[in-house]
Amino acid sequence: MRPLPRSFYLRPTLTVAKDLLGKYLVRKLGRELLIGRIVEVEAYLGTRDPASHAYRGRTKRNDVMFWAGGHLYVYFTYGMHFCANVVTGPDGIGEAVLLRAVEPVEGIERMTKNRLHGNLSVAGAQRNLTSGPAKLCEAFAIGRRENGTDLMHGEIMIAAAPGPKPRIASSKRIGIRAGTEFRWRFYIRNNTWVSRKN
DNA sequence: TAGTTGATCGTCT
DNA sequence: GACGATCAACTAA
């Protein structure tokens, strides 16, 4: 499995966001391989988007958002959770796509163990494993250390996946106060692993 | 089923 | 000193 090339991420952020749906998120963890099919994302458009971490300019926290496309921006929130973004566009613009949910494809046992070690419970069904931005980070063991990871290097990457292009739906973004007028959440229609129905 | 709340801490004001 | 790109447990009806 090979990572998508840098050029994939250097395109307009909304294009990349929709194009990420159906792709594989791949994590090499020692000898184990974790794979999830991306089913839900949100776009954050840098300094022109009031909901974006980059809205008020470059800081120590959001610095990675301003790197060139194809890096991973991981942030800590609510005192306990991590969320992962794919940086998009050329160097210096501060745009990214939040990974909100994936469908587990491979390494489900490892993901379950990772979830048990974290803050969140895996209560009940397997559909709770990766159906939210903090849940998928816990399952894939993505935390502070992974902030700034280059997705070209292979440790964490996004790869092409088999199958037809998924049917895409859009909605308002979740959990934000400003910028609610934009429908920049994209997800695969009728997919069980999407974080909530809409 | 919808709505509310506690947990918990780094970052920015 | 306030609050968040969350989640799960709880309450009410």
Textual characterization of the structure:
The protein has 198 residues and is an alpha+beta fold. It has one domain: Roll (3-methyladenine DNA Glycosylase, Chain A). It has four helices and eight strands. It has helices at 6-9, 13-20, 108-117, 133-139; strands at 24-29, 32-44, 72-77, 81-88, 95-106, 156-159, 168-171, 185-188. Strands 1, 2, 3, 4, 5, 6, 7 and 8 form an eight-stranded antiparallel β-sheet that branches. A hairpin with a 6-residue loop joins strand 4 (81-88) and strand 5. The mean pLDDT is 95. It binds a DNA duplex (13 and 13 nucleotides) through residues 42, 44, 51-53, 56, 59-61, 75-81, 83, 85, 98, 100, 119-121, 123, 132-135, 173-177.
SSE diagram, text form:
Layout (H helix, E strand, L loop, with lengths): L5 H4 L3 H8 L3 E6 L2 E13 L27 E6 L3 E8 L6 E12 L1 H10 L15 H7 L16 E4 L8 E4 L13 E4 L10
Antiparallel strand pairs: 1-2, 1-6, 2-5, 2-8, 3-4, 4-5, 7-8
The structure holds a DNA duplex (13 and 13 nucleotides).
The quaternary structure here is: single chain
CATH architecture: Roll
Largest sheet: 8 strands, antiparallel
Query: In angstroms, what separates the terminal alpha carbons?
Result: 33 Å
SSE order in H/E notation?
Answer: HHEEEEEHHEEE
Using only C-alpha atoms, the radius of gyration works out to 15 Å
CATH class: Alpha Beta
The secondary-structure class comes to: alpha+beta
- Helical percentage: 10-25%
Summarize model confidence as the mean pLDDT. Answer: 95
Number of domains: 1
- Principal-axis shape equals globular
pLDDT < 50 stretches: none
Write down how many β-strands occur, each being a DSSP E stretch of 2 or more residues.
8
What is the CATH topology assignment? 3-methyladenine DNA Glycosylase, Chain A
User: How much of the polypeptide forms β-strand, as a percent range?
Assistant: 25-35%
Count of separate DSSP helical elements: 4
